[in-house]
Amino acid sequence: MPTGKPAGVACIQLDEQLRCRLFGRPERPAFCGGLQPSAEMCGETRESAMFWLGALEAATAPATR
Prior knowledge:
By secondary structure, the protein is mostly helical. The chain is 37% helix and 0% strand.
């Protein structure tokens, strides 16, 4: 996604099992490689992790005018 990924939109590089097609490849964006999951981030369920990621996206979204 050359101009970045909008909040709430799944990355176009995810496969059918929601795994990154670029994992371990040099063209993987630096942000993705720098994101280090933690127990707090992942939680106990996929829903917990998605909620955490949604909050992260909201907190880092560009300000609207």
